[in-house]
Each structure stands twice: as structure tokens, then as C-alpha cells.
Backbone:
């Protein structure tokens, strides 16, 4: 009994959580004409009227009723207006319903603005950032976790304290700085400031510390230098945390919006989120195209999520645990 | 025997340190400096001391943005906290389909704010949106949603037949405050801002639920078994055991949600307006305000920096306050 109440509540709320996505999908395959007519329910069903004349069925739109007859506009098969304000008998007009999916919306949205370019930019930036973050992160975390040196704790806590500073605070001076360096509107501005991540260093340091000292001693006795120990012992033992860090880095980079919006200007450098934002202004009235564009821009991450959901959820959950 | 100084460790932290110092530490220090200068896109002007902060104090737009941001925080944080704790409890009690539900709640967290803002903007569209479609289906009048500047208190009381603006009119005459200020304070967030509140809660719910779920799984089962023997009901068990033992997680969720909500930007930028922050500035939040000052027409980078530092001050104060409180009630 208690169980079934749980399931009912979870299902209802789960449905509320996914309704925006379902509606996004169904609207993305509707014709704009249908949406504008106010047929905004979930089913992509089209309503239209036809009129038969000399054995040919014409698409028509009723304009005005006049007693038993109606004035109509008549269209040919290409939806070109061929006659207007024809007076026909109302009973001859047939109302039709048709289930139709307009997959061409996706193609139209994808080619209307250079989404291909935006995808490339985002992939290039995200992969570069993840690559950089893992390299700088494992090197630094290795030093913090296993070596003794002067100022180690001071430097580490200085880094950690900077993690708490919200982005809006360093956004403006970063712009000033990047502008001074001549990096505004270049890939450098999107990549270089992000190739070291304090959270990644923290995460990897925690992991490296769990590796028993005996293993390091054994490596030293075998004549392994510092770097070789990192490469052949520490990193292989830390695979799952490295994957976690990579996933965090990738999702963060893929979804980042405010930074690239401010630091780039030229259309060729737009990342997906910025391109999508401009597209939403340009095509604000074309609901179904916007939904199609939203769909294909979240699709890669949703697919990544579906494949690695256990790992991703565990990663996010571990970000909340102290330690 | 004296050991030779070992440069090794420093070489390992060097790549990360360079990036963090150049692109974090220096900008953070620079932000204080910039806020005291008349700094525009062309470079530093003259030193103007606290002028930016004084301007801010007299800037009605700043205070409205602050109020809007506070509305956002005081609605989003408690609602999100309660809902995620409830969901986590239900999820914790089931075995079958657990991972399916968990994934469903979590999807909004990994999707981009830009894409889902576009979707929600159309959901709240007056003519072609899903929200009004549902409302009219169940027999209500369609609403203005993102175009509605009236406060939710006003809308609620007016629907009950009360003359809210008349009441504010009388009150403002009585206590000598301007009608507009009093309306903004007592009218509550505008319906448009309330739409943003809904989206912000929806987006963050999955993350908070997952965090709570992890916290719940850490509570030893023996407590509940003991309570069962003593004959305590499930509701009583929740308030007497779960709520206390989950408090560290609650503090974390509270802190993270507050910090993130103070920095809301994308949904405002994409869902409201034109002009962004509308209708009548009722959805202008602090981060959009500083973005607009810094990179909009006036291009006043130093003013924007000063606003950012005030935001930082608020977040820092709240964090320290919560940390102190946490120490006091830590079990």
C-alpha cells in the first residue's frame, strides 16, 4: 500500500519533470502553420479542409460563412493560392485530420544558421578543456597528495578558497585582461583560462591520497622516478575518478554560456549555446524550428547521460559529500 | 648533511598554478581595483574612489534587481529543498524502477540552460504555449505568464475579489512610502518572475534529490529498526530521525542552491523581454544587471565590477553564516 503511493507520486512528478521534453519533441515535428493555429497539444495531428471539384481535391481555407454557403480560398498541390473568395456550399467542404511528422524541421533548423560550425566549436573547445584539465589536474594533485614541499598547504588552500568566488566576480576583470592580451574573440579566450580546474585538482588529490604508501615504496625500490610512478601506478589506479573529472569538465564546458557570450563576438567563433541563443532571437516566431534546434543541441549530452547514467549520477552525488 | 632544494614538486604544480594565478587570482584582485576606477572598454580612467558604490546606493534599478534576486532565492531555495527531500525519501523507499525515476529527475540537470530556457519560453507563450493550453482545457482563463508584470500576491488577492492596488494606495498615503516601492515589496514577485522561479526549481531539483538520496543512504538502518520496535510511525520517524541525521546534507543543499540562485543569468537572458528583464524590470536580476552595465550600451566595466563585488560580499556572508550555524547544529 505504502509502496504503491510512492510509485504513484513518483510517477506523477516524474511526468511533470519530463513534460517539457516531450512537448519539445512533439512540437519539433509539427508544421508551423498548425502551431500558429493554436493546435499546441501533444499529438502532431494536422487539421485541414478540402473541397472537391471536377474529381480533383483541393486544399482550401474557409474565410467567411454566408448562410448555407462559405467563401473559401483554393490552393493547388504546392499550396499556391489559385482562386480566392469562391462561394461554395458549406456542406461540400470536408474537414480532414492527418497524423503527420515534419522531420524536415530538423534539417531546416540545422541549415538555417551554421549549426555544424557551432557543434564543431563546442566539441573542439570541450575536448581541449577536458584534455588540459586532466593533465594540469593530475600533475598538481600528484604533487599535493604525495610530495612534501614548502608552502604546499598554503598554495592548496589558496586554490580551494578561490573555488568559492562566483563567476560574475572574475568575469569583468577577465574580460579586461583578455582584451589587454588581444585574446578576445579567439579560441584562446574560450580554452586557456579553463584548462586548469580547482575542483578537479581537489577531486584527484583526494583519490591519490587513498593509494597506500607501500605501493609508492615498492615503485621507488624498483627504481621508478616520480613521473613514471604517476604514469604507471597512480593514474591506472584512479581511472574512475579521472572519468568523473572528465565528465564534469565536459558537461560544464558543453553547457557554458555566459563566458563564451561575452568573450567572443564573430559568428564563426560561436559555440553551440551562443549560436542557439542567437538563433532563438532570429527565429523567435518559428516555434517548431526552435524546438528542433533545442532537441539536437541537448541530444549529445542526453545520449552521453543515458550511456553513463550510473557513473554520472554517482559523480554528482559524490560532489556533495564532504571529504 | 643538507639536502639540495628540490624543485620537482613546484614543476608539477606549475602548469595549473600559472593558469589559476593568471585567470583567477589576478582577476579577483583586479576586480577590486577596477571598481575604484572609471574603467571602460578603452582602458582605465581616473581613480574615483567609492563613487561607483555611492552611485549604486542611489540607483533604483540596482535595488529592484536586488529585490528580484531575493524573491528568486527565497522562493527557489525552500521549495527546492522540500521537494527534493520528499522525492529522495520516496526514492529511498522503493526498489524497482528506482534508477529509472532517478534518471528522469536528473535529466534537466545535465541539459543546457539555454536549450531548456527556449523550450520553457514557448511553454509560457500566451498564444502558442502549453501552459495556457492546459489552463483553458480545465476551464480557467489564460494568463499572461512571462508578460505579466503584476505581483503574485496582487493576482491572488484580486482573483478573490480584493482591491489590492487600492489597499496599497491607501497604505502608501498612510505610511509615506511611494506606491511603486510598496507595491514591489508587498505585491511579491511578478508572475513573469514566478515563471523563472518554476524553471529554476525544475532545473535544480534532480541534483538536490541525488544529493539527498546519497545522504539518506548513509543513515544506518538500525535507527529505523529501533524506532519500529518502539512503535514510531513513518512520519514520526522522518521528523525524529531522518531530519536530524540529514542536517549536514541539508546545509550543503541550502548553501549550494542559494549560491547558484544568486547567480541566475541564462534563463533571464533567454526567457524574458524584449527588453531583457521585462516586463517593467520585474525579472531583472543582479547578474543580468551587471552584465547589462558592463557590456551593454554604457559599457561601464568599473560599475559592473562594483556590483559583482557586492554580490560576492552577500554570498560570502551567507556562506560564513551558514558555516557557523552548521557547526552549532551538527550531529
Residues:
Amino acid at each position: 500500500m505504502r509502496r504503491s503511493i510512492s510509485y504513484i507520486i513518483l510517477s506523477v512528478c516524474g511526468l511533470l519533470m519530463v513534460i517539457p521534453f516531450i512537448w519539445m519533441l512533439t512540437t519539433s515535428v509539427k508544421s508551423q502553420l498548425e502551431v500558429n493555429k493554436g493546435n499546441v497539444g501533444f499529438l502532431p495531428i494536422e487539421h485541414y479542409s478540402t473541397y472537391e471539384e471536377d474529381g480533383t481535391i483541393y486544399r482550401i481555407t474557409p474565410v467567411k460563412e454566408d448562410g448555407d454557403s462559405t467563401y473559401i480560398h483554393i490552393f493547388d498541390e504546392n499550396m499556391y493560392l489559385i482562386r480566392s473568395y469562391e462561394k461554395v456550399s458549406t456542406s461540400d467542404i470536408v474537414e480532414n485530420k492527418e497524423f503527420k511528422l515534419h522531420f524536415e524541421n530538423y534539417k531546416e533548423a540545422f541549415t538555417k544558421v551554421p549549426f555544424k560550425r557551432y557543434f564543431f566549436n563546442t566539441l573542439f573547445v570541450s575536448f581541449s578543456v577536458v584534455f588540459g584539465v586532466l593533465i594540469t589536474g593530475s600533475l598538481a594533485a600528484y604533487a599535493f597528495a604525495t610530495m612534501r614541499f614548502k608552502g604546499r598547504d598554503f598554495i592548496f588552500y589558496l586554490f580551494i578558497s578561490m573555488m568559492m568566488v562566483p563567476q560574475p566576480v572574475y568575469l569583468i576583470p577577465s574580460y579586461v585582461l583578455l582584451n589587454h592580451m588581444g585574446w578576445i574573440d579567439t579560441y584562446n579566450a574560450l580554452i586557456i583560462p579553463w584548462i586548469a580546474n580547482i575542483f578537479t585538482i581537489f577531486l584527484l588529490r583526494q583519490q591519490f591520497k587513498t593509494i597506500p604508501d607501500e605501493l609508492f615504496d615498492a615503485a621507488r625500490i624498483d627504481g621508478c622516478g616520480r613521473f613514471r610512478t604517476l604514469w604507471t601506478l597512480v593514474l591506472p589506479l584512479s581511472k574512475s575518478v579521472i572519468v568523473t573529472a572528465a565528465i564534469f569538465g565536459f558537461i560544464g564546458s558543453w553547457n557554458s554560456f555566459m563566458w563564451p557570450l561575452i568573450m567572443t563576438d564573430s559568428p564563426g567563433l560561436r559555440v553551440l549555446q551562443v549560436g542557439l541563443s542567437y538563433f532563438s532571437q532570429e527565429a523567435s516566431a518559428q516555434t517548431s524550428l526552435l524546438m528542433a534546434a533545442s532537441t539536437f543541441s541537448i541530444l549529445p549530452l542526453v545520449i552521453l547521460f543515458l550511456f553513463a547514467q550510473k557513473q554520472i549520477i554517482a559523480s554528482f552525488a559524490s560532489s556533495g559529500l564532504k571529504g | 648533511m643538507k639536502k639540495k632544494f628540490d624543485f620537482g614538486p613546484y614543476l608539477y604544480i606549475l602548469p595549473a598554478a600559472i593558469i589559476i594565478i593568471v585567470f583567477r587570482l589576478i582577476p579577483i584582485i583586479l576586480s577590486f581595483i577596477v571598481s575604484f576606477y572609471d574603467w571602460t572598454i578603452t582602458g582605465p580612467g581616473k581613480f574615483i574612489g567609492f563613487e561607483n558604490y555611492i552611485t549604486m546606493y542611489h540607483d533604483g534599478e540596482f535595488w529592484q534587481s536586488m529585490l528580484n534576486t531575493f524573491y528568486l532565492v527565497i522562493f527557489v531555495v525552500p521549495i527546492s529543498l522540500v521537494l527534493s527531500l520528499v522525492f529522495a525519501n520516496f526514492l529511498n523507499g522503493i526498489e524497482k524502477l528506482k534508477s529509472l525515476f532517478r534518471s528522469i529527475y536528473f535529466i534537466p540537470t545535465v541539459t543546457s540552460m539555454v536549450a531548456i530556457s527556449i523550450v520553457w519560453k514557448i511553454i509560457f507563450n500566451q498564444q502558442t504555449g502549453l501552459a495556457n493550453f492546459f489552463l483553458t482545457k480545465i476551464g480557467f482563463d489564460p494568463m499572461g505568464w512571462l508578460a505579466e508584470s503584476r505581483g503574485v500576491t496582487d493576482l491572488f488577492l484580486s482573483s478573490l475579489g480584493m482591491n489590492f492596488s487600492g489597499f496599497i494606495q491607501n497604505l502608501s498615503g498612510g505610511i509615506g512610502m511611494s506606491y511603486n516601492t510598496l507595491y514591489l515589496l508587498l505585491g511579491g514577485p511578478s508572475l513573469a518572475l514566478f515563471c523563472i522561479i518554476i524553471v529554476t526549481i525544475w532545473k535544480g531539483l534532480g541534483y538536490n534529490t541525488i544529493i539527498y538520496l546519497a545522504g539518506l543512504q548513509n543513515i544506518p538502518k538500525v535507527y529505523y529498526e529501533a524506532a519500529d520496535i518502539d512503535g514510531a510511525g513513518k512520519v514520526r520517524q522522518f521528523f525524529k530521525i531522518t531530519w536530524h541525521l540529514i542536517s549536514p546534507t541539508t546545509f550543503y543543499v541550502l548553501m549550494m542552491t542559494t549560491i547558484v540562485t544568486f547567480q541566475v543569468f541564462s534563463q533571464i537572458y533567454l526567457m524574458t523581454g524584449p527588453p531583457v528583464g521585462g516586463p517593467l524590470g520585474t525579472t531583472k536580476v543582479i547578474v543580468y544587471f551587471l552584465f547589462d552595465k558592463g557590456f551593454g550600451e554604457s559599457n561601464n566595466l568599473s560599475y559592473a565590477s562594483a556590483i559583482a563585488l557586492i554580490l560576492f560580499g552577500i554570498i560570502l556572508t551567507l556562506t560564513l553564516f551558514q558555516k557557523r550555524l552548521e557547526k552549532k547544529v551538527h550531529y
About this structure: Chain A touches chain B through 92 residues (CB under 8 Å). The mean pLDDT of chain A is 89.
